[in-house]
Amino acid sequence: MADSSQGAAGGTGLRAEIELSWRRAKLFGVDPDSPGTLRVSDVDRTSRLMVAALPVLRRLAEELGDHPFSLMLADRDCHVTYQWSGERRLSSALESYGIGVGARLDEGAAGTNGLGTPLELGRGVAIHGAEHYLTVLKGFSCYGHPIRHPLTRRLEGVLDITLAAPTVSPLVGPLLSRAVADIEARIIEGARATDRRLFLAFQAATRRRSTPTAVLGGDIVLANRACLERLGSTDPSVLRVLTRDLRDRSHVVHVLDLGPSGRIPVEAERIDGTLDGVLFHLGEREPAVDPARDDRRSTPQRPPAAVLVAGEPGTGRSCTARELAGQDAVQVFDAVDALTGDGRAWVSRLVELAAAHTGTLVIEDVHLLDERALAVVRKAITAPMGARFVLTSAPVAQLPVHVADLVARCPQRVELVPLRDRVHELPALLRRLGAERRPDRELVFTPQALEVLGAQPWPGNLVELAQLVDELVARPLTDRVGLGDLPKRFRASARTTSLGGRERAERIAIITALREAGGNKRNAACELGMSRTTLYRKMRRLAVPEELGSS
């Protein structure tokens, strides 16, 4: 237990650890006179921490009875995942300042407090009323104690007792310490049960089949010798990037792209009785695929009279169109020029070149053309002329009827897959983009960083991925990229990585609408067909970054 009576520091009247906490809060830009309204996010109520802590918290609540105490549990990101109050008046007072389940109480959001400060210090500490950094919290006193995984010693969360009083009783520390010890013991029991299931699944799989096999779950990574040999220098933890689809299904098959090292078919299935246990079987290694001859774009060098290249922005439509032209002379027509310039001149030049050109005409973004221009393009691609056509457009399923009629006249289509559905290719794509920009360096991504990147919606697709690589190769330091090295906008929360398929699609739609609306929530809500209140609620539930919306 922290000694709440130790001397003040530097004549400020504050204990040393409290004075340092105030300095951190000031550096974070926390306003001590702010009303205390905190950002609220959805939390995982089925986490290992919650499963282990809930029986202990219920027993502790019974012991405290009607006493004016409030119990709070926060996860390692300092989001409150549980709250109980023995007195309604105390509960209402905390709620009035936004302190409840889902609120984030780290020092960067709420200054010195009984959850954020113990998390920062890594030990139990009492925060007496006047020691709170926020003025609105000075009417409360609290004691917080961090919870650690007994084996890894990693911080799992913080347990706090709060009361409406100027000081904390010395008896609170030992009470909370015992509760934390009980929670940590239950974490071990739960981990042992889960670890046993993971080991048994691995044992059964390796006994039944001789293929390269791995099991991943929590901090556990089990792999047989055949798996290690098949992966070579690649860490088996990289297999985590293939598990996203298992949130909706029990079994998936993907191809793990290792760039120059080749491609490996991987079969993945959930392990019953575990939160995130996955069993992997690896197939035979296949030769690496030349990006310029990617099988998703396998088409003749000289295309037929008209080819459509469809996909979301940033998926490589323009590059694919030029690849399809092969050695032909290429003339590019951008539909945006027809909208912003002289549309009649644009159409006239197209007709002229279609009759005289013997190479390939690339028409970018045909879905933006008006019906008159589309009629001209339709006639040009069906007429027996010398030129060949490659058209690019938005995904076919999103095209309006009058554009779909034009698309139907293209005898060949190439549909580009969005990056969010190609997460199993992330290691190879990152390696290739890094080599293109800095051949003298190689970015090495940790499995945790790859897992977080694999959970991103990637509305900008390959363009957005290339921007990330540009930022990383510009760093003067190490080439190893861990979770903390990623730009803040790419760090997905645990809540985001656990979303199901429908939730992920909804989150992507909201992020895209906010970006297209320039952050204006009112316009984004209108575009999505919902009220602004509903949009706020969905943003909190789906962990959409607040900074995407400005109003």
Descriptive labels:
HTH_Fis; ATP-binding; P-loop_NTPase; 19 helices; alpha/beta; 551 residues; Rossmann fold; five-stranded antiparallel beta sheet; 17 strands; disordered N terminus; Beta-Lactamase; transcription regulation; globular
Protein model, in words:
This is Transcriptional regulator MimR. The protein is 38% helix and 17% strand. The chain has 19 helices and 17 strands. The strands form 4 sheets. A 5-stranded antiparallel sheet has the order 2-1-5-4-3, sandwiched between helices. α11 (371-382) links the parallel β13 and β14. α13 (426-437) crosses α15. The protein is globular.
Short description:
This protein has 19 helices and 17 strands. By secondary structure, it is an alpha/beta fold.
Average pLDDT reading:
82
Number of separate domains: 4
Q: Which segments are poorly predicted (pLDDT under 50) over 5 or more consecutive residues?
A: 1-7, 291-302
> What's the number of extended β-strand segments?
17
Main beta sheet strand tally, sense and closure? 5 strands, antiparallel
What would you report as the Rg, rounded to the nearest angstrom? Answer: 29 Å
Q: Tell me the number of helical segments per DSSP (H or I, 4 or more residues long).
A: 19
Organism: Pseudonocardia xishanensis
Protein name: Transcriptional regulator MimR
Domain Sigma-54 factor interaction: 414-474
Pfam family, one: HTH_8
